[in-house]
């Protein structure tokens, strides 16, 4: 089973008013999803975001956004440059691949030399 992890790619303090407590100390965070398995590590193109007030510690959902918060969100969303969506194979994958190729090569060699017959 692969594990999923959200990696922070952009984080910024914003000075808009919080809709809950009207404080001007909030943080916007953009995260990219990474999946880690035994045979591969995959970076997905899926990006999530959260806006959190630092004083009342509440998450500001898009339903509660003001026009100012939405404008700031659009600005920072354009600035985010996520990593490319790629798959990187682990050393275990390469060890299994080489072992499989060696076994197939040895089987073909033994069959060609007449030691093994079907």
From TrEMBL:
Source organism superkingdom: Bacteria
Entry's transmembrane regions: 92-111
Keywords: Membrane, Transmembrane, Transmembrane helix
Designated name of the protein: CpXC domain-containing protein
Organism whose genome encodes this protein: Maribacter aquimaris
